[in-house]
Design a protein that fits this description.
CATH class of the largest domain: Mainly Beta
Oligomer: single chain
CATH architecture of the largest domain: 5 Propeller
Number of domains: 2
Largest sheet: 7 strands, antiparallel
GO molecular function: hydrolase activity, hydrolyzing O-glycosyl compounds
Strand content: 35-45%
Protein name: Family 43 glycosylhydrolase
Family: Belongs to the glycosyl hydrolase 43 family.
Pathway: Glycan metabolism; L-arabinan degradation
Keywords: Glycosidase, Hydrolase
Shape: globular
């Protein structure tokens, strides 16, 4: 049977798009546009501890100040290099800063995984991995400047005789990621990659070779980033498994000695990828305690932006009555202030704009097909009080700037800018305006300074502030205005 399709008259065709239909379509397009903007403004990285890329963090409190020694990431060359040695400090665990380098002779070398600073013999010692080898270093203060504890304070590739471990192998002694623990009796121990452990001699710069053991753990496979601490008479040994998005932490316990023997609970994995919360690969970090309390915290790097573009996060570490560790409730939110410290009142930024914005970055996965992240770089991220997000200018932007709109003229007392890749240094100009068109200088510095934040003390009245980046990576993690 032949079927005939009758064409609609022209008048009937027009009624297919009535004013109501057009309004509905416009509403849909507007909704999609808003959702698109919202998607671009999402921050999948949460509130990282530090306004920079760091990994392998060792955190401790010394005389009321939190110190964070870490690997400086974000230099975009993978494992071929690292950033220089800086120590971030904070009084409250929220506002962090650094100024200059704490280990000058190590600048320009691959500087990884510094340990916590231990006090002994009237000095402070750290044990970073430099160019792939562990070295002991010493200073009169946890702020440095540190220098090699043995021999001449000079590094050469691939290694020197000042290494912590000694070997007759021409390739040098094997081992990275030193973790130091001092027991109640004053005996110091060192733990390192692939489950090795030993006593340190009283000089704190040589190893008691007769005591070296390899810890037999419940789980096999490559392991790095050991963590060791003692709580209520129990020694805890934490070791990593896997890497990238597959990073995990497992642990064992001993009531006998820092060198074991260790028992391994049935539920021995305390940190692993949380797909629901989009926390990927919790890896090399530390455990630290707030002195005088039973409050323990677990710091870890998160896979984040792939390769050596990691950030560090902190969650509470909790225990069962029998001393076993509960699986960590992983979030990217941070733990907030650990000490109450008075701070200046911040002025709210109601709007912002920038000379340009870098295009969205789709982050590729390494091992996990469920890993999906996109980073956006809106100027609003410089004012969201979250260290995981940042404004970045477009690569072709050679005269980058960012403007903060305070909504109305305000009395401004200060500005603190946390630039992207601060360990490479920045120079900037700070300007103010009443109308956003005519600008006057009020701060900044023409020379490159290696610090974070960059602070300007002001006494002006303005609605707008503008930072022009003269030297350094054109981006801002956070900008605080007071």
């Amino acid at each position: 049977m032949k079927t005939t399709i009758k064409a609609l008259p022209f008048s009937e065709k027009r009624t297919a798009f009535t004013p109501v239909t057009i309004k509905a379509l416009l509403h849909c397009f507007l909704l999609l546009f808003v959702l698109s903007l919202k998607a671009q403004r999402e921050n999948p990285f949460g509130n990282a501890l530090i306004p920079d890329m760091i990994a392998d963090a060792s955190i401790q409190e010394i005389n009321g100040t939190f110190y964070c020694y870490a690997t400086t990431d974000g230099y975009d060359q993978g494992l071929a290099t690292s950033g220089p040695p800086v120590v971030w400090k904070s009084k409250d665990f929220v506002h962090w800063s650094f100024a200059g380098f704490y280990f000058p002779s190590a600048v320009g070398h691959k500087y990884w995984a510094p340990s916590k600073a231990i006090a002994a013999n009237g000095k402070y010692y750290i044990y970073p991995t430099v160019n792939g080898f562990m070295y002991p270093a010493v200073a009169g203060s946890p702020d440095g400047p540190f220098q090699l504890a043995k021999g001449v304070d000079t590094f050469s590739r691939s290694f020197t005789s000042a290494t912590l471990l000694q070997s007759k192998d021409p390739k040098g002694p094997a081992g990275i990621d030193a973790e130091i623990f001092i027991d109640d009796d004053g005996q110091a121990y060192v733990f390192w990659q692939r489950r090795w452990a030993a006593k340190l001699n009283p000089d704190k710069v040589t190893v008691d070779t007769a005591s070296i053991i390899k810890i037999a753990t419940k789980r096999e496979g490559y392991s790095e980033g050991p963590i060791f601490f003692k709580r209520k008479g129990i020694y805890y040994y934490l070791y990593t498994l896997g890497g990238d998005e597959k990073y995990q932490y497992a642990y064992g316990m001993s009531k006998t000695s820092p060198l074991g023997p260790f028992d391994f609970p049935k539920n021995d994995i305390i940190a692993t990828t949380n797909y629901e919360r989009q926390v990927f690969g919790p890896g090399h970090g530390c455990v630290f305690n707030v002195p005088g309390t039973d409050d323990y915290y677990f710091a870890y790097l998160e896979f984040g932006r792939r390769s050596t573009n990691r950030q560090t996060y902190v969650n509470k570490l909790e225990f069962n009555e029998d001393g076993t560790i509960r699986p960590v409730d992983l979030t990217l939110n941070g733990v907030g202030a650990l000490h109450a410290v008075p701070h200046k009142k911040r002025i709210q930024v109601v709007n912002s704009k920038a000379s340009s914005v870098r295009s969205d970055l789709i982050i590729k996965r390494n091992q996990d097909s469920l890993f999906q992240r996109t980073e956006s770089f809106s100027s609003q991220f410089a004012f969201d009080a979250a260290n995981g997000s940042r404004w970045m200018a477009a690569p072709e932007d050679t005269a980058s700037w960012i403007v903060a709109d305070l909504g109305k003229a305000r009395h401004i007392k200060g500005s603190e800018v946390y630039f992207v890749r601060p360990t490479a240094g920045h120079a900037h100009v700070l300007e103010y305006s009443a109308n956003g068109k005519t600008w006057k200088p009020c701060g900044g510095h023409p020379q490159v300074m290696i610090q974070s934040p960059h602070i300007d003390n002001l006494n002006i009245k303005a609605r707008y502030l503008r930072v022009r980046i003269v030297r350094g990576v054109p981006g801002v993690w956070e900008w605080h205005i007071y």
